[in-house]
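Deliverable D2.4 — example input (structure tokens):
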């Protein structure tokens, strides 16, 4: 049985009830939500409403209809960035961002439409809110920051950044791809205007699910226009939430699965889940730090982390370590740049990247021990090479 330690990519396994429910749901929830007044469609519609309500509970969102359901975090981030930014705008972001933020911004910048400031990070990979303040100008319309790095697991001080962004009248977009379900999030307390999150990572839901919270200060143009099942007489996309941003038939099956996983998470509580995952992270870090051939990147304090650890085995390319773990020990981890080349440049691990190990809710202490043993074995057995010179920026 594979030891799955790539929960930062997508969580596996899912809560047992989700598997039980999916087949039944396909049989019983045949109707399209919001597209008919008959009972089957209403029943599917109720599932979608409940997902919104459960998400609102989890993220401290006062108006559930302001949560727009999307395909994944990338979809939500594109919706936010392209919906907000106008020609001539200035955007502040960080060097740590995933390509789902970096690439949309890069393209707008390359087309000469916007200016982008990318804030650097100190050695431990945590953005200094003072540096965000320094980058803000009167033309800044958007500040986009991830809540935790998908490379090092470093939590970012979003609760300190949010009020600064508000002082300048810009909108604050938080990429919670790694934290929704794994760390507490309160959109009001952190002055977040836009929160993008996937359903398939720490929310433990099926692939093809995600969402975007759009706060009352944010005025977005729709990114996808089309049928909403209501207000069909209007020539333009309705302005009412969530219809303004939810065109087309929803992923009812995925959302029904997400409902199960959200109930599961709310039952245990995010604080409990975080404590459990941090204890696995501590075990992993201690195991690696005890061996001089293994280097761990990211924050030194456990409380500044989520359960995502980037490491290197001395003299061994990350891809060969991951291959060894997979083929020799049945352990699934992810090597390379993790779609965040800027974060690796900042770490000094570009272009080879790192070995990323991300335990999840269902990981056991025994699996972490097996992973640490396998890393030591890789250090012992793999041929040593001189790795390409690392490029370090900022
Ligand atoms: C920080 C971060 N942002 C965005 C994404 C994109 O998420 P999704 O795969 O749900 O589109 C990821 C995925 O790994 C991520 O780690």
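Example output (designed residues):
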């Amino acid at each position: 049985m594979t030891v799955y330690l790539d929960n930062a990519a997508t969580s596996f396994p899912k809560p047992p009830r989700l598997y039980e429910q999916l087949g039944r749901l396909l049989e019983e929830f045949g109707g399209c939500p919001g597209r008919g007044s008959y009972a089957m469609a209403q029943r599917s519609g109720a599932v979608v409403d409940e997902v919104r309500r459960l998400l609102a509970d989890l993220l401290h969102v006062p108006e559930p209809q302001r949560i727009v359901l999307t395909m994944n975090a990338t979809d939500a981030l594109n919706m936010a960035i392209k919906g907000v930014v106008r020609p001539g705008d200035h955007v502040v972001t960080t060097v740590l961002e995933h390509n789902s933020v970096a690439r949309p911004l890069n393209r707008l910048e390359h087309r000469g439409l916007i200016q982008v400031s990318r804030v650097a990070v100190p050695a431990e990979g945590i953005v200094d809110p003072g540096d965000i303040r320094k980058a803000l100008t009167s033309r800044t319309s958007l500040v986009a920051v991830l809540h935790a790095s998908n490379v090092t697991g470093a939590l970012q001080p979003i609760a300190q950044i949010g009020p600064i962004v508000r002082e300048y009248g810009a909108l604050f977009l938080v990429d919670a791809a790694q934290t929704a379900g794994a760390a507490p999030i309160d959109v009001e307390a952190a002055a977040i205007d836009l929160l993008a999150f996937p359903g398939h990572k720490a929310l433990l839901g099926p692939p093809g699910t995600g969402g975007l919270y759009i706060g009352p200060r944010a005025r977005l143009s729709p990114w996808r226009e089309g049928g909403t099942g209501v207000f069909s007489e209007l020539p333009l996309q309705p302005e009412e939430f969530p219809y303004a941003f939810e065109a087309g038939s929803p992923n009812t099956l995925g959302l029904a699965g997400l409902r199960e996983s959200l109930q599961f998470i709310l039952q245990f509580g995010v604080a409990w889940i975080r404590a459990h995952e941090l204890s696995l992270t501590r075990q992993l870090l201690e195991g690696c730090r005890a061996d001089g051939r293994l280097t761990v990147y990211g924050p030194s304090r456990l409380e500044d982390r989520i359960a995502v650890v980037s490491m290197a085995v001395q003299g061994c390319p990350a891809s060969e370590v991951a291959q060894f773990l997979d083929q020799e020990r049945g352990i699934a981890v992810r090597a390379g740049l993790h779609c965040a080349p800027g974060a690796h440049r900042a770490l000094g691990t570009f272009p080879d990247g790192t070995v990323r190990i991300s335990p999840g809710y269902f990981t056991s202490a025994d699996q972490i021990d097996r992973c640490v043993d396998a890393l030591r074995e890789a250090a012992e057995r793999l041929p040593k090479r001189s790795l390409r010179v690392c490029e370090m920026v900022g």
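The first helix runs from residue 16 to 28.
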